[in-house]
Design goal:
Elements: E1 3-4, H1 17-21, H2 31-36, E2 41-45, E3 56-60, E4 63-69, E5 75-79, E6 93-95, E7 98-100, E8 107-108, E9 114-116, E10 137-140, E11 143-146, E12 169-176, H3 180-187, H4 206-213, E13 218-223, E14 227-235, E15 240-249, E16 253-256, E17 267-275, E18 281-289, H5 296-304, H6 327-330, H7 340-349, H8 367-384, E19 407-412, H9 417-427
Antiparallel strand pairs: 1-13, 2-11, 3-4, 4-5, 6-7, 7-8, 8-9, 10-11, 12-18, 13-14, 14-15, 15-16, 15-19, 16-17, 17-18
Length: about 450
């Protein structure tokens, strides 16, 4: 692991749109689409697909798929359209070891094998010749994960929450009407916390006060096996520096401290931005703490306050996020309530469904954004050259994700932030043992 310098191109060297636009296109056959398909992607919340749940039509990376449990309770993920006459298999029946098409009764198991063609005369049946495209799928950490690439899937990384107790994990997702890339870039932009998330709120603590007191953190980056650590230093106590370590996780994820930070070291809020298509995506949020149960009722209340009676977001671009400008006087900076995800959705969706990066003017505060884009471009080159991109592991014994750490901590002003972050990994703050309290 090596530190990377913190230089950022001047605004005169802003790259044209065509360099970055390749990262926004994620459909089949696109370079970024191929890259995202090299990694396991979350495609659903496991609790929504319990035994007996109907098959679900889902769209991921511009591909229409059907997710279902067969009658033994095992998950399967197939291409949506029946190969016979293109009927939608999500309307099918779960029976006889698979998913039966509602049109003519063709039956497919979760691996895509055609088991029956009941509408075809027995002497003319060719079930062995038919195989529906299928994709590996597994349940871990409260999520349903899918591998949409070709060949054998890699190891699912050992994220801190992946085998954690369910009481220590809170999962939610938001439908976001913009490209995945600009949304994930918001997670690696530490200075925005001092503005769009600023508010007077009972949950606001000394950390939030610090974000407001020092709105221009000093940033540095340290490369890791999965992407990079982004270290943000803020000065607001005479003797101390507030250090926040967040992460860019290739190719479309990130981590930061959120609600779970109230329990002290040993937690992380992990975020995946999974494209539905190039103009919409799901933002999956996993709030986790290794040593303490998460007060899920508090998070549930925050989420439900932002949903209508049909479970849809109340605040949208079309209604200007119900912005209350009187609220901006003395309550919140953005005037759209106190839910952090809504703040993020406001700014990233307001950029347009795909942000026009030709009009950007990047500054040193955008260090994480620039590093992530460059790392993604390098990953595209690696895939094109037939190499494994960073963060893809084929051998579980290699200890994938062991260098991951997310934290907020006070350090001496003379301390090296990169060395402090490395010490946090050696402490193994994600070991599950007795509950801790905040530092």
């Amino acid at each position: 692991m090596s530190s990377m310098n913190t230089d950022v191109p001047s605004t005169s060297s802003v790259h044209p749109q065509d360099r970055w636009s390749v990262l926004t296109r994620t459909g089949p056959g696109e370079p970024a689409g191929d890259l995202l398909r090299r990694y396991w992607q979350p495609i659903g919340i496991a609790a929504e697909y319990a035994a007996g749940a109907p098959p679900a039509h889902i769209k991921v990376l511009s591909e229409d798929l059907v997710l279902f449990r067969d009658d033994s309770g095992e998950l399967g993920l197939l291409a949506l359209r029946c190969p016979h006459r293109n009927a939608d298999l999500s309307y099918g029946r779960i029976e006889d070891g698979g998913l039966r098409c509602p049109y003519h009764g063709w039956l497919f198991d979760r691996d895509g094998a055609c088991l029956e063609q009941p509408n075809v005369p027995a002497a003319q049946r060719t079930v062995a010749n038919w195989r529906q495209p299928s994709f590996p799928v597994q349940e871990r950490g409260g999520l349903v994960w899918a591998y949409l690439g070709t060949g054998e899937p890699p190891v699912l990384p050992n994220y801190p929450f992946i085998d954690g107790p369910s009481e220590h994990i809170y999962i939610n997702r938001w439908l976001s009407e913009c490209n995945y890339l600009q949304a994930n870039e918001g997670n690696i932009d530490p200075s925005h916390t001092s503005f769009v998330h600023r508010m007077e709120h009972p949950a606001a603590d000394a950390t939030m006060t610090g974000f407001e007191a020092d709105s221009a953190p000093r940033l540095s980056v340290v490369e890791t096996s999965y992407g990079f650590r982004l270290l943000a230093e803020r000065d607001y106590v005479d003797e101390k520096t507030f250090l926040r370590c967040s992460n860019f996780i290739l190719p479309n994820a990130a981590s930061a401290n959120g609600f779970e930070a109230m329990y002290g070291l040993g937690g992380a809020t992990m975020l995946w931005h999974v494209p539905i298509d190039d103009h919409t995506h799901y933002r999956y949020e996993v709030t986790y703490h290794a040593k303490n149960e998460i007060a899920s009722e508090i998070l549930d209340a925050s989420v439900k306050a932002e949903l209508d009676e049909n479970g849809k977001r109340r605040r949208l671009l079309e209604n200007r996020f119900l912005q209350d400008r009187s609220e901006m006087i003395d309550k919140t900076f953005a005037g759209v309530g106190t839910a952090f995800p809504i703040h993020d959705l406001l700014v990233t969706e307001s950029m347009g469904s795909i942000s026009d990066r030709r009009t950007e003017h990047l500054t040193p505060s955008d260090l994480g954004v620039m590093r992530a884009r460059r790392m993604l471009l390098q990953a595209l080159e690696d895939v094109s050259a037939g190499k494994e991109p960073k963060g893809v592991w084929r051998d579980a014994s290699l200890g994938s994700f062991q260098d991951f750490v997310t934290f907020s901590d006070w350090i001496e002003k003379s301390s090296d932030p990169a060395a402090h972050a490395e010490q946090m990994t050696k402490r193994n703050i994600y070991a599950r043992n007795e509950p801790t309290t905040a530092n």
